Each structure stands twice: as structure tokens, then as C-alpha cells.
Amino acid sequence: MSEKNKPQKLINVPGINSICLVFITIALLTLASQALAAPDPQTIGDAAKGLKLRSIGPALMGGRIADIAVHPDQGSTWYVAAASGGVWKTDNAGMTWEPVFDTYGSYSIADVTIDPNNPDVVWIGSGENVSGRHVGWGDGVYKSIDAGKSWTNMGLEHSEHIGKILVDPRDSNVVYVASEGPLWSAGGERGLYKTSDGGVTGNWCLKSMKIRALRISNSVRTILT
């Protein structure tokens, strides 16, 4: 090939190829960043319309379930007492849940009992019924007459920990409460208590100071073991 036909170098500067490569890389990165830029808020809003918040917990200590009560006639309606999380209700067998006790005196719930004669009447005992250093205490016994929509404190505010609540199936005004009392100190309201007026007057009669179990039988109103 003659000298005239040989390709000529337009620029002959040491390192020019490296400099060109750097500029090309910067240009490509700029284009890529523009392509990956966040969409406008309207686009994000449209994409998020189908998303719903869902619970992925609780776990470990916060997830203790203390008691469950199922509606006697509507098997899809449950009340769940969370040891450190109030009272929850479902009307569709657990597909969705509603907190029904968040605005009341205790977050720690030990027992939930449905009146066998009137399922709209629900009793709960506050204060988890285990003897551990991690437990929360309660402020007595609560009663709902509208299926958990509202609650009234029916007394035993110094019980701190409720072991069990039983409603006499022959007379809903007769209710028994097994109270553990304070865990780490003397005093408080502890033992087996009874009301004969559905707790209306707040007069709870102390029946026994020693109780390990409580149940209703057909022949005897209470059996202590």
C-alpha cells in the first residue's frame, strides 16, 4: 500500500484512548440512570392501589395467645385474648381480624368467656395468667353486652391476674372468677370470687382463697380441685 493510501492518525496524543473511554462510560451511565429514574407520583399511586397492609407478626414474646372463645351458634366468630395485645375478634374464621379492646384499661388479657345463654355477652379477665417475669398485669374483669363493641369494667381492679371466668349456664347472673392476685407481693384480690347479679353492683363475694381449677358441672355449680 502506498504511503498516500495508508490511514492517517488524526490525533496522536498519549492517553487519548483512555480519556475517550472514560467519557463514553460517563455518557452511558447517564443514559442508564435516566432510564432507571423513579416514575412520577401518579404512577406510583396507581400501582399501589391494589396493595394492602398486612401483619407479619407478632412473634416470640409478643405473640402469646392466652385464650380463645368461639361463638356457640356462629362457628366463624371467634374472640382471641392476646397475652400482650388486647382482644381480637373475627367473623370469618380468621380471614380478617378486628381489635376490640384497644381503648380500655389493660393490654394484657388472660381469659375470654362467652355467656352460654346469650352470645352477645362476653366476659374478659385482664392480666395474663402465668407467673413469669415478662407478664403484664390487668385491672379487673370486663363485660360486653353488645358482642365486643363496648366494654365495662365490672370490678376486681386489684386482681392483677385473672385465671378463669365461668358463667353458670343455668343463670347468667351467676359468674365465677378465679383470680391469681399480684405475683410478687401480698395483698390484692386473690381467690375465687362470685357475683349473683352479673357484676352490675360490683359486689364480688370471696368464696375461697385456695383454688387450682374451676369448672361448672351439671350436678354441682362449682367444683374446686
**Number of DSSP-assigned strands:** 14
Strand order of the largest sheet: 1-2-3-4
Strand and helix order: HHEEEEEEEEEEEEEE
User: How much beta, percentage-wise?
Assistant: 25-35%
Helix content: 10-25%
Rg result: 34 Å
Q: What's the structural domain tally? A: 2
CATH architecture designation of the largest domain? 7 Propeller
Tell me the overall shape.
elongated
CATH C-level of the largest domain: Mainly Beta
Provide the CATH topology of the largest domain: Methylamine Dehydrogenase, Chain H
Q: Low-confidence parts lasting 5 or more residues at pLDDT below 50?
A: none
| First-residue to last-residue Cα separation | 114 Å
Q: Would you write up a description of this structure?
A:
By secondary structure, the protein is of the alpha+beta class. It has two domains: 16-37 and 40-44; 61-224, YVTN repeat-like/Quinoprotein amine dehydrogenase (Methylamine Dehydrogenase, Chain H). 12% of the residues lie in helices and 27% in strands. The strands form four sheets. The chain has a four-stranded antiparallel sheet with strand order 1-2-3-4, with no helix packed on it.
